[in-house]
Design brief:
CATH superfamily of the domain at 11-41 and 56-212 in chain A: P-loop containing nucleotide triphosphate hydrolases
Chains: A alpha/beta (280), B mainly alpha (359), C alpha/beta (287)
CATH architecture of the domain at 11-41 and 56-212 in chain A: 3-Layer(aba) Sandwich
Helix content of chain C: 25-40%
Largest interface: A-C, 55 and 44 residues
Order of helices and strands of chain C: EEEHEEHEHHHEHEHEEHHH
Oligomer: heterotrimer
Number of helices of chain A: 11
Shape of chain C: globular
Distance between the termini of chain C: 36 Å
CATH architecture of the largest domain in chain C: 3-Layer(aba) Sandwich
Shape of chain A: globular
CATH topology of the domain at 11-41 and 56-212 in chain A: Rossmann fold
Radius of gyration of chain C: 20 Å
């Protein structure tokens, strides 16, 4: 049930703007979270959205997942404007899914893993029989290397580790048959030694399913290694964009340079100490 | 730590892995760490029956005590009327103190107090349940829906909730009861306990609605609700399948509160003569006792038992509520055990602070 | 390691257990030595026991945590050796914050939201230096804020009026208040943006140059530790599996877990960019 899809298209953000009205006592102020952001996601390619907190990257993720409506601008899929309700929204959700940041919070503690995987299957494949749904759910769990699927399916989220939960989240995102995945900091709340494993899994699945992935992170190193293109965001705007290797190795914008300088680099062993000693 | 290839070792006891006891740690990070460490290797399925039991309150003195009291009263309400005389049989000597014939004596009109109490138990419990259910349903509608949808829906529902909150409870019930009972066309129904239950139910939901709204608002921001929306779930399914199950302990507690307030409210109404005068409830017994000058004539057997029953039921239900609270907030459950552990560790201990964490 | 390295804190064979059911051995036979003025990085992931070990060294363990074995010795600047584990009451109070202080994980959120920064900083002095006059305290508080790079006028502010980075600097100022010889910092910058983090790390190193305290820096961010530490200890499941200078750990790691931990941080500037995207060797630990 995997394989090349027909009707390849792109997922495109056009001039997205998002303003929030904040109340401060009796006064209102506007927070311009996202100011005119455009980018495009093609199947089989990963675009990384890199920025610090407050840069607007999470807001963009939520707009792409249709959890927020843009104040202006639109999201196009396969070249056509995407719907915000009804059938059009259903079709959109079948194509675009999201992996959330918090492996604990994104799974309902009350329900089994089976429930989490089978619900999207039932919603987007209403014609399938129960046994079809069940076998597809097991298949998905094994795809994300949670085997044997049957046993994992009966557990509840608090009985799994962080890495296992996040893989369930990936399986859930794949269930509707999505072509595009928005991964919002998918590994930043996981233990360091299992992060690469989950990212590698995502990369493998992307290759196998020819997915388009929007990888949102604050970590430049994994952004570089897992994405084809990097967009650097600062205060709601994209300040630099380009092929990953170029942006990291030859940054143009001041902010990108600041970010790169601030990142921990073991090759700069002892430099900060010497710098400070001299009187920095 | 390759948990992709986890083998399922049946020898590893369920308890180790699936224990969801909250343990006191000296930092949240440490708590998480121990939890993660114990979970990293194996995933074992919990049998479905065990999972259900994890939802229920743990057996404790409070829970057992509360269930015993409430159970006894319910049994009394079911079996009492079967063994007692007809409650309105005035063929008895009046104002007799408790004796072998009449275990709780008789009233001024010669009714057997024990019989009145037994039928009264039925009446009061029925009112409590009906009113509690109505209040819970309304609280869910006005609370959870307002909390989940936000925006205009929230504003509208909250406005109504706030109005209900502001209006004093008992006077409102009195007014409605008086009005309804005086209106034509209701006949006997106007005096029945069902009507009183309905009136109590539709006036007693506001407090619970506020609590449920706050919880629903908080749950709405959980990522698993967002994940359900992104997966394509419709709003009503999100509310019933994702949010409400996590509110079950709270709903149970609110329901029990509702019952308590309904029974007390009914007693108050009856005492004022606005109650279910067509039926027998503990409240009507108290009312009769008051109009029959039970206090003046020293007929304690007439008013003490119904009062005591109301108090006992209230206490029993409250104990059950405390036990439910411990499900909701594990820290409460573990407080005595934590204290014991602190004492034990302090005695054994090296490197343990007795006085507190930070100087 | 510099030839003049003098130990300021020695932990030998420390074992800490959580007395729950079943008991959890959080720290097993851990030994480490902290030298005067050095930065010792304590690296490990969640559950490895690094925070528990720090609490044990600092006498901050709360039941059911129990130190079942080991000794912790503090080598005071005036030459005396203090047995930390045996401290009680007054001597413990004199030790805490004065000789060894701590910046806790997430501590920027442990400022009392209803008290001004001034009140909270003054608190440290009224508790530990009762002899100071109000004016002396105020001067010292202003000096401390200046030390950590916060404008002394912020003394009147409340915590919610400061950014996360500034709050963390205030916590560091509090830890520095009594001029300790050792500072233990538990993930002090993890919740902060990388740019802010760099600023705070720079501040800590500057202060270390100036005041000469030693630091135990606890974090999972191994590349950061390699950059700033003199020596690093790697913890796994309660044990210290490897200890060495930053150079040794980076260039010549010996233990498998150290190698795995290092491999978990893809190099920012190295030329491994293609391998993951094109589907070559998949590395990294299994999740």
């Amino acid at each position: 049930m995997s394989g090349i899809r027909e009707g390849h298209g792109t997922l495109e953000a056009q001039h997205l703007v998002k303003d929030f009205r904040l109340r401060d006592g009796v006064r209102f102020s506007t927070l311009h979270a996202v100011k005119d952001v455009s980018f495009s996601l093609a199947p089989g390619r990963t675009v990384a959205l890199v920025g610090e907190s407050g840069s607007g990257k999470s807001t963009i993720a939520r707009m792409m997942a249709k959890l927020e409506t843009p104040s202006s601008g639109r999201v196009l899929i396969d070249g056509m404007p995407s719907g915000d309700r009804g059938r059009a929204l259903e079709r959109y959700r079948r194509d675009v899914q999201m992996v959330f940041q918090d492996p604990f919070g994104s799974l309902n503690p009350f329900h089994t893993i089976r429930h989490h995987i089978e619900r999207p299957l039932r919603i987007h494949h209403p014609g399938w029989s129960s046994s079809d749904v069940r076998s597809r759910a097991n298949e998905l769990l094994e795809r994300v290397r949670l085997a044997p699927a049957g046993r994992f399916a009966e557990r509840r989220p608090h009985e799994l580790s962080g890495g296992q939960r996040q893989r369930v989240a990936i399986a859930r995102a794949l269930a509707p048959g999505a072509r595009f995945i928005v991964a919002d900091e998918p590994v930043s709340m996981l233990d360091v030694s299992i992060r690469l494993g989950v990212l590698n899994l995502l990369a493998d699945l992307q290759r196998e399913e020819h997915l388009g992935v929007l990888y949102i992170t604050h970590d430049l190193a994994t952004a570089r290694h897992f994405s084809d293109e990097i967009l650097v965001m600062f205060r709601g705007e994209i300040v630099e964009r380009g092929p990953s290797d170029r942006v990291i190795l030859d940054p143009q914008h001041e902010y990108t340079k600041t970010l790169l300088d601030a990142a921990a680099d073991p090759d700069k062993l002892g430099m900060l100490r010497d710098d400070v000693r001299i009187g920095g | 730590m390759d948990d992709a290839q986890s083998t399922l070792d049946p020898a590893v006891a369920d308890d180790e892995i699936t224990s969801n006891r909250a343990i006191a740690f000296d930092s949240p990070a440490a708590a998480d760490a121990v939890r993660e460490a114990s979970r990293e290797t194996v995933a074992i399925a919990t049998p479905p029956s065990r999972r259900f039991r994890n939802l229920l309150p743990r057996r404790s003195a409070k829970l057992v005590g509360g269930l015993v009291i409430v159970g006894a009263i319910v049994l009394f309400g079911i079996l009492g009327p079967l063994i007692a005389q007809p409650p309105r049989d005035s063929d008895n000597p009046s104002l007799e103190p408790p004796s072998a014939d009449h275990w709780l004596g008789t009233t001024k009109l010669g009714y057997d107090v024990f019989a009145q109490l037994a039928w009264g138990a039925q009446g009061s419990l029925m009112i409590g349940l009906v009113a509690g259910t109505i209040a819970l349903v309304l609280a869910v509608v006005f609370g959870v829906l307002a909390g989940y949808f936000g925006g205009v829906v929230d504003e509208a529902l909250s406005l109504l909730t706030n109005i209900m909150l502001v209006i004093p409870g008992l006077p409102l019930v009195m007014v409605i009861a008086a009005y309804v009972q005086r209106s034509e066309g209701l006949g006997d129904f106007a005096r029945s306990s069902v009507l009183v239950a309905i009136v109590l139910g539709i006036t007693g939901w506001a407090g619970s609605a506020v609590v449920l709204r706050a919880q629903a608002r908080s749950l709405r921001t959980r990522e698993y609700v967002a994940a359900a929306r992104v997966a394509g779930e419709r709003a009503w399914r999100v509310i019933f399948v994702e949010i409400l199950p996590n509110l079950v302990p709270l709903l149970a507690a609110q329901f029990i509160f509702g019952i308590i307030f309904a029974i007390l409210g009914e007693a108050g109404l009856s005492y004022l003569g606005l109650g279910a005068t067509g039926s027998i409830t503990w409240g009507t017994v108290l009312n009769d006792a008051q109009t029959g000058q039970a206090v003046g004539t020293g007929a304690w057997w007439w008013f003490v038992p119904p009062g005591a029953m109301i108090a006992a039921l209230g206490a029993g239900l409250s104990l059950i509520n405390f036990a439910i609270d411990e499900v909701v907030n594990p820290k409460l459950r573990l407080a005595p055990e934590n204290a014991r552990q602190v004492r034990r560790a302090a005695k054994a201990g090296r490197g343990v602070t007795e006085t507190g964490v930070i100087a | 390691m510099r030839a003049d390295a003098v130990p300021v804190l020695t932990a030998r064979g420390v074992s800490i257990e959580y007395d729950v059911d079943p008991p959890v051995r959080a720290v097993r036979n851990a030994s480490l030595t902290l030298h005067r003025g050095e930065i010792l990085g304590l690296a490990g992931e969640s559950g490895c026991g690094k925070t528990t070990l720090a609490y044990g060294i600092n006498r901050l363990l709360k039941a059911p945590a129990l130190m079942t074995a080991g000794e912790v010795t503090f080598h005071d600047a005036d030459g005396r050796d203090i047995d930390v584990v045996e401290l009680r009451g007054d001597s413990l109070r004199r030790f805490r914050w004065d000789k060894v202080s701590m910046v806790f994980q997430g501590s920027m959120n442990s400022l009392n939201p209803v008290m001004s920064i001034r009140a909270q900083l003054h608190d440290v002095f009224t508790t530990h230096r009762p002899g100071m006059t109000r004016r002396e305290r105020e001067a010292r508080c202003a000096e401390l804020l200046g030390l950590v790079g916060v404008d002394p006028s912020r003394l009147s502010s409340f915590p919610h009026e400061l950014s996360g980075g500034m709050r963390q600097r205030v916590m560091i100022a509090m830890a520095l208040a009594l001029d300790p010889q050792v500072m233990i910092m538990d993930e002090p910058t993890t919740a902060l943006d990388v740019v802010v983090q760099r600023g705070i790390i720079r501040e800590i190193m500057r202060l270390r140059e100036r005041l000469g305290f030693a630091v135990i820096f606890i974090t999972h961010d191994l590349p950061l530790l390699i950059e700033i530490s003199d020596r690093i200890a790697i913890m796994l499941e309660g044990e210290i599996v490897e200890q060495g200078t930053a150079v040794e750990i980076y260039r010549a790691p010996r233990h498998d877990y150290t190698k795995r931990l290092l491999a978990s941080f893809p190099s920012l500037r190295g030329d491994r960019g293609d391998f993951v995207r094109r589907g070559a060797v998949t590395t990294g630990g299994a999740a």
